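Record format v2
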Amino acid sequence: QVQLVESGGGVVQPGRSLRLSCVASGFTFDKIAMHWLRQAPGKGLEWVAVTSYDGIDKFYADSVKGRFTISRDNSKNTLFLQMNSLRREDTAIYYCASRLLRPLDHWGQGTLVTVS
Amino acid sequence: IQMTQSPSSLSASVGDRVTITCRASQGIENDLAWYQQKPGKAPNLLIYAASSLQSGVPARFSGSGSGTDFTLTISSLQPEDFATYYCLQDYIYPSTFGGGTKVEI
């Protein structure tokens, strides 16, 4: 079955960097666009970024553009989110998600990033 | 594209009919999805393409709308439906969520 497992979260100081990973299994990873989303404590969902199946096309939310970079390694079925110049307002649970057949139809369990 | 969801919260009883609305700041055709999220869990897709029921989702959930105005309806609220609901436009990037509707007892 489809499984998405995020890792790499933790506590980081403002201005520092962190890289998140999402390992996928149960589907043909190199044919599927992948997304990152986040949810600040007690707040709503925010879409963060997407990469096309081949890693060529990428789009970002305005709130992270220029600071975050989405990438993927199709040989390792892994999605990444490089987060630079972190701010307190980036504190959130970060989810990876895929669109296998329908919009964001599979999600990981999330990884918590705390900027403090 | 801004997604305005209302109400932000509502109180209802088991068996009630519940309606949640989402308005897009510009036309998004039918590129709208609805998600349910329970505390401590990732969101779960309910409805896609505005009105199509995701596999495995109970038929008491339905969606309607096109263009800028959309509705999620729960025909008869069940105890397991108390959760927060979000709309998402995926018509154009950046995708955007509505602010959420918390359905409480």
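Chain B has no helices and eleven strands.
The mean pLDDT of chain B is 97.
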